[in-house]
């Protein structure tokens, strides 16, 4: 599309797509697919199946927009927008930009003062959160954890004391390792929910403590997975024993903090004198209190 000085900027539309059941497609999705000048899809084959299910034929140009070509294709789509085009961005499931392609294009469009809007749709994050039975008033979405074990543990230690409910995406073949790592860092008794195949025929929500869920997942799990984990419990000073103090210091040290800094931070969050935390660490080192 040729960009001219008189061209009014177009509009970038982020469209949520079904996460399982095509009947969940928002009514506006079909209209946007039919009318857009350009449809940028994470997988054009899956887009074709979606449009056939919705009974709609895009009149505009259909292009691929996925992790492998996102950087190269973004300037092309921005040029279309600057030329007045209405560009619709869809991913395989859920809302673009949420652990899917989209952020790069949105940022580039915003930088050029292009209007960005959305067609709200199904969300695995919110659906899993609502079904989990865990607190929903405050939560954090952490996306996918790193594949390497050491990096995964490090990322989990960063949020070990986070009190908000945590939401993760995970591949089924890594679920058992992830749940075992969560049990190691958060404590095996921490409550969680594994949400599998949401809105699909074999939807399942398995709830329980992390160690129990890890044993279940070790038997093999299939499908799209969302994991919801309760936040760290809020403890008063009288509830925190030496073992827990030592565990918190250890978590911070393993995340890269120096011992002195870790002790000070744990003391502050526990409302205790630094000396008390220091004494617990020394006692553990000499065979007294051991990390949980």
Automatic annotation (TrEMBL):
SUPFAM superfamilies: Tetrapyrrole methylase. Keywords: Cytoplasm, Methyltransferase, rRNA processing, S-adenosyl-L-methionine, Transferase. Pfam families: TP_methylase. One of its GO terms (molecular function) is methyltransferase activity. It catalyses: cytidine(1402) in 16S rRNA + S-adenosyl-L-methionine = 2'-O-methylcytidine(1402) in 16S rRNA + S-adenosyl-L-homocysteine + H(+). Residues 11-214 form the Tetrapyrrole methylase domain. GO terms for biological process: methylation. This is Ribosomal RNA small subunit methyltransferase I.
């Amino acid at each position: 599309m040729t960009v001219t000085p008189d061209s009014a900027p177009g509009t970038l539309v982020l469209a949520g797509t079904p996460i399982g059941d095509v009947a969940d497609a928002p009514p506006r999705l079909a209209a946007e697919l039919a009318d857009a000048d350009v449809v940028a899809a994470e997988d054009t084959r899956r887009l074709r199946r979606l449009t056939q299910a919705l009974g709609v034929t895009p009149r505009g140009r259909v292009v691929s927009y996925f992790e492998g070509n996102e950087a190269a294709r973004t300037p092309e789509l921005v040029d279309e927008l600057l030329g007045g085009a209405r560009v619709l961005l869809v991913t395989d499931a859920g809302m673009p930009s949420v652990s899917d392609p989209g952020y790069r294009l949105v940022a580039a469009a915003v930088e050029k003062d292009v209007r960005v809007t959305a067609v709200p749709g199904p969300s695995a994050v919110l659906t899993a959160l609502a079904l989990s039975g865990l607190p929903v008033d405050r939560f954090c979405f952490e996306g996918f954890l790193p594949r390497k074990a050491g990096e995964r543990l490090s990322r989990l230690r960063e949020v070990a004391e986070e009190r908000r409910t945590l939401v993760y995406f995970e591949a089924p073949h890594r679920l058992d390792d992830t749940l075992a790592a969560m049990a190691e860092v958060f404590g095996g008794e921490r409550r969680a929910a594994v949400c599998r195949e949401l809105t699909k025929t074999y939807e399942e929500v398995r709830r329980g403590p992390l160690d129990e869920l890890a044993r279940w997942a070790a038997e093999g799990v299939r499908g799209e997975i969302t994991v919801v984990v309760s936040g760290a419990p809020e403890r008063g000073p009288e509830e925190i024993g030496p073992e827990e103090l030592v565990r918190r210091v250890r978590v911070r040290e393993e995340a890269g903090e120096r011992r002195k800094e870790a002790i000070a931070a744990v003391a502050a969050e526990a409302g205790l004198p630094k000396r008390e935390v220091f004494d617990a660490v020394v006692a553990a080192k000499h065979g007294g209190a051991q990390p949980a």
